Amino acid sequence: MNAVKPIPLMTDIPQRILESLHSVVMLFDRELRLRYINPAGEMLFEASARHLLDSPIAELIQVDDNLITALQEVIDTAHPFTKHEQKLMLLAQREITVDMVVSTLQEAHGQTELLVEMNPINRLLQITRDENLVNQQKTTRELLRGLAHEVKNPLGGLRGAAQLLEKELPNETLKEYTNVIIREADRLQKLVNQILGPNRMPKVKATNILEMVERVRSLILAEKHHGITIKRDYDPSIPDVEIDPDQLIQSVLNIVRNACQAMNDDGVITLRTRILRNQTIGQETHRLAARIDVIDNGPGIPEKIKENIFFPMITGRAEGSGLGLSIAQSLIQQHGGLIECESEPGKTVFSIILPITRRTDA
Ligand SMILES: Nc1ncnc2c1ncn2[C@@H]1O[C@H](COP(=O)(O)OP(=O)(O)O)[C@@H](O)[C@H]1O
Ligand SMILES: [Mg+2]
């Protein structure tokens, strides 16, 4: 007799999926009492489902009237709502930021229930995904660029005039003064050029992330930061990204150089690449994205400037210009990506996230 193959049990698959999701899934009844929470939710609230079930929503998170009205409206109209970067205060006095989708679920016996899906965004991510802040950074950059433009032209004239004057000077010792003008004009010119950044449009092409990161690695090795060890942790399966390779290299290089400087050329830098799914950048969600992490074990970003490092002219170093990260951020934003950062003493991670648009999608 043939052995009968056991039929796989299908019924527990939805349950198992719910339980292994990284997203928080919660179900509320019409009175906004918790009916279900998955393990990701238990982790977020740091309590077991048994403890949480039946609690009114107001016992889980601090809700304001607007949120309650919005939730009631979903129940009444069955129109789902999506909210990016919603700030929620958990009752343990912990503020979190989440992307959330609220929709309704029709129960078998006709009851409408509220389905809440949430993806927490961690605190530091907030700094760079906060749209207000991104816009502020952009405005500051534009302001500074405008100023740099204004300074650039007369600077050339100034330098030229000082050179002419130098030739006319009857007395050699007076040249000291024209030299000061020329030297300072050159210094300003350099700064102005840095602020203005690359003055060409990005030349976008299908680019292999791994090759670019390797290029950065060899450039850094050539700079001979003697005490620095560079480790590699690459995901070889990342599809090509549509980006200007030179600008990507420039951005990663700025970040890696900062790490070398922060560690006084003594420490470990890890270059890591990963593929991400369903990433929200600004208003858009991308099915696939590439992430490049630059991790160092240095002292971490000074607390005083932590929130502002992506603004131009913000520096923690005496000889710094404060332009490296601002330029990197602007280059990456031009490609629809973002840079974010997480830092504590002993571990700083800068991540570049770039959407992968497959040609067929475009
Ligand atoms: N990996 C890092 N570890 C510690 N601090 C960092 C790191 N990267 C950047 N910083 C801090 O951020 C500041 C801004 O960096 P950046 O914009 O490149 O300007 P600059 O390097 O000219 O100071 C640095 O001066 C430094 O204080
Ligand atoms: Mg720098």
Gist of the model:
The chain is an alpha+beta fold. The protein is built from 10 helices and 13 strands.
Described by the principal axes of the CA atoms, the overall outline is elongated
Largest sheet: 6 strands, antiparallel
Estimate the mean pLDDT confidence. 87
How far is it from the N-terminal to the C-terminal residue, by CA?
Answer: 56 Å
What is the highest CATH level, the class of the largest domain? Alpha Beta
Question: What features would you describe in this structure?
Answer:
The chain has 10 helices and 13 strands. The chain is of the alpha+beta class and 362 residues long. A hairpin with a 5-residue loop joins strand 1 and strand 2 (34-37). Helix 6 (131-168) runs antiparallel to helix 7 (175-196) and helix 9 (245-262) packs antiparallel against helix 10 (324-334). Mean pLDDT is 87; it is low at 123-127. Bound molecules: adenosine-5'-diphosphate (ADP) and magnesium ion. Residues 254, 257-258, 324 line the site of magnesium ion.
What does the secondary structure layout of this molecule look like, with pairings?
Elements: H1 13-20, E1 24-28, E2 34-37, H2 39-45, H3 49-52, E3 61-62, H4 65-77, E4 81-90, E5 94-106, E6 112-121, H5 123-129, H6 131-168, H7 175-196, E7 205-207, H8 209-222, E8 227-233, E9 241-243, H9 245-262, E10 266-281, E11 284-296, H10 324-334, E12 338-344, E13 347-355
Parallel strand pairs: 8-10
Antiparallel strand pairs: 1-2, 1-6, 3-4, 4-5, 5-6, 7-9, 10-11, 11-13, 12-13
Helix pairs in contact: 6-7, 8-9, 9-10
Bound molecules: adenosine-5'-diphosphate and magnesium ion.
